[in-house]
Design brief:
The complex is a heterodimer of chains A (434) and B (192). Chain A has 434 residues and is mainly alpha-helical. Chain A has 20 helices and no strands. The model of chain A has no long low-confidence stretch (mean pLDDT 89). Chain B is globular. Classes of the chains: A mainly alpha (434), B alpha+beta (192).
Chain lengths: 434, 192
């Protein structure tokens, strides 16, 4: 240490002088003044500091990064330090770009080889793990007197999932086992199906239900999917061939493609996250093995997605959040139960036909519990969907219930995955005679 | 890409199937739709006025189990079908609107003023459900009375013991005093 100080004495002297100068000019209320007069650059730096600091800190407490960022957002919002105004356009921008990027990366990370290897089983489990929670959540919402469009949407929010516990299984050496590959493959199905339900529900909510209107919307969606899924790879390959050595251009091109797909979806009255997801699926193969892919994911996971979670936290009105939860507690408990039971029923329905033992099945169950990426992005999109009467597709109470669901399942899911995963490894060890 | 197309095809087919299901009997009566639109506009205008005069009411409305906005003695909505006025109650969980009527328990209006707006804020779901399912009468033990502040003065809010907060508004502004009693509320079967 002494050697380091001697070697870097100009640096340490400068730090000491800066500290002395800072402390001598410190007076009560300096922090309040900073908050009041903070420039956009100061605030952005503070946000980045929290993005950097909070997730690893919470990881030590075994809490997921998304929860850490949500709490960070709440801290910056008007109900704790009041540093960021939730109505600021920048918050809106980060919320929208973040959710588009979130779904783009969900699409980008779809590994068709994994799906192909277990195609029949992934489809079977995907259908089960989509339909059971969809029916459970939908019926629960209907019982609470929701309209059928909102009930269907709430069911679909439970039907998708985020494989938050997968890195734990990889660490335990279980990532390549068939049940886990089936669960990963099933996610592709649930994500696509949940987004389709969202698109249709938003369309019905905004334009009213008519068989012709719905058929038109489904036709538009199919047309847009074909254009994006087949057109983007075509343009992408041409562009990548021409500019293969210019990484900056490739990066900008990919970024533009994501936003174009989202804006295009918005233009034909589809949700922007549907466009983002389709773009991710479309450029999946074009970017395969490319360094640009890693950089795009890094950019998304390191910046845009954390900012999305923070934006949700900033917008969270704590007193209203608490009051709506108290008022809708039976509903919150019911949808959590519908999720747990629905996902369990899905696993039970395939356990015997697929020949999985209990630890396999329970690990799959725990893996499909977390409701983070697609669920939260879809819930935000549904909350933002306003019809001609000014009514939202889902209310603030439902959005708050989804946030509770996200926090609970993102904690519970990985904990259970680790527990059941260890059971699997112990059974493997006891089965191994050597 | 073919495999992907197939993957997209199944949910799309499911949705096309859904789209062929029979549509619910839509109500196209223009009068009904027009009246519903009038009531929604009345609600928006009334809430805007309330938020201007009492900004903290915005948060109360958002945090509540539900809220209702009623117009009493308004030119368009006056004494329709034996009622003194009409309004809408919003369930903050489901987002559903229920159209309701308001009238007096005995002869006379009971509220004591004309061309007024009432904003009812329900603090819990039980009372909201009771209000919607069984109707409600403000009177006796259920009268909404003025809340006193720490110094014994009026806060401008009325509240029933069951947890229904009431704001009374007229064209000139928020009414600070009085009680709400002698009025009953029931579902408007024609408008729902």
């Amino acid at each position: 240490m002494l050697r380091l100080v001697r070697k870097r004495w100009p640096l340490f002297t400068a730090i000491a002088l800066a500290l002395v100068a800072g402390l001598s000019s410190w007076e009560p209320g300096a922090l309040v003044r900073f908050v009041e007069h903070a420039s956009a650059l100061d605030i952005f730096t503070l946000v980045l500091f929290l993005v950097f600091l909070l997730p690893p800190l919470f990881a030590r407490l075994r809490l997921p990064g998304a929860v850490a960022l949500l709490i960070g957002g709440v801290a910056l919002g008007p109900h704790v330090f009041g540093i960021i105004d939730p109505d600021d356009h920048a918050v809106e921008l980060f919320a929208v770009v973040g959710r588009v990027f979130l779904m783009f990366i969900v699409g980008l990370e779809i590994d068709m080889r994994v799906f192909q290897a277990t195609k029949q089983r992934s489809m079977g489990f995907g259908l089960a793990t989509f339909l059971f929670p969809l029916m459970g959540g939908g019926l629960a919402a209907y019982a609470f007197d929701f309209g059928w469009t909102a009930a269907l949407l709430i069911g679909s929010l439970l039907a998708s999932h985020t494989l938050l516990g997968f890195p734990i299984l990889t660490k335990l050496g279980l990532g390549k086992r068939e049940p886990m590959a089936v669960a990963a493959g099933a996610t592709i199905f649930t994500d696509i199906a949940a987004l389709l339900v969202l698109a249709v529900c938003v369309s019905i909510h905004k334009g009213g239900f008519s068989p012709f209107g719905l058929a038109t919307q489904v036709f538009q969606l199919a047309l847009y999917s074909i254009i994006v899924l087949q057109g983007l790879p075509l343009i992408g390959r041409l562009y990548f061939r021409r500019h293969r050595d210019d990484e900056g251009a490739l990066f900008s091109f990919t970024f533009l493609v994501v936003m174009l797909a989202a804006a295009g979806a918005h233009f034909i009255h589809l949700e922007d996250i549907v466009g983002g997801f389709l773009a991710g699926v479309a450029v999946n193969r074009v970017l395969s093995g490319s360094e640009v892919r890693d950089k795009i994911i890094l950019m998304g996971e390191g910046l845009f997605i954390p900012l999305f979670f923070m934006a949700i936290g900033i917008r969270l009105d704590l007193p209203v959040f608490a009051a709506t939860l108290v008022n809708s507690l039976p509903f919150v408990v019911t949808i959590i139960a519908a999720l747990l039971i629905g996902k369990l029923a899905a696993v039970l329905s395939i356990r015997r036909p697929f020949g999985y033992d209990w630890p396999d099945a329970l690990t799959m169950w725990s893996l499909t519990l977390p409701q983070v990426a697609a669920t939260l992005a879809a819930a935000m999109a549904a909350y933002d969907a306003v019809n001609a009467d000014g009514d939202r597709l889902i209310t603030e109470s439902v959005l708050n219930a989804v946030i509770v669901l996200m926090v609970l399942t993102s904690i519970l899911g990985p904990v259970l995955t680790e527990r059941f995963g260890r059971q699997m490894t112990q059974e493997e060890k006891s089965d191994d005679p050597s | 890409m073919t495999r992907l197309n197939r993957l997209f095809a199944l949910p799309v087919l499911l949705l096309v199937g859904l789209s062929l299901a029979p549509a619910g009997a839509g109500d196209n009566q223009p009068d009904k739709a027009a009246l519903q639109a009038d009531l929604r506009k009345m609600r928006t205008d009334t809430l805007d006025q309330l938020y201007r005069e009492n900004p903290k009411a915005r948060k109360e409305v958002r945090a509540a189990a539900g809220y209702g906005v009623f117009s009493i003695g308004g030119a368009q909505l006056l004494f329709v079908g034996g009622s003194a006025g009409r309004g809408i109650v919003r369930d903050n969980l489901t987002g559903k609107d229920t159209f309701m009527k308001v009238g007096s328990v005995s002869a006379g209006l009971g509220v004591g003023f004309k061309d007024a707006r009432l904003v009812l804020i329900f603090s819990n779901r039980t009372v909201l459900k009771d209000f919607l399912d069984k109707g409600w009468t403000f009177g006796g033990e259920t009268a909404a009375v003025a809340k006193a502040d720490d110094k014994g003065g009026s806060t401008g809010e009325l509240e029933s013991p069951q947890g229904i907060k009431v704001y009374q508004l007229t064209q000139t502004g928020l009414m600070a005093k009085g009680t709400v009693e002698g009025t009953k509320y029931w579902k408007d079967e024609g408008l729902n």
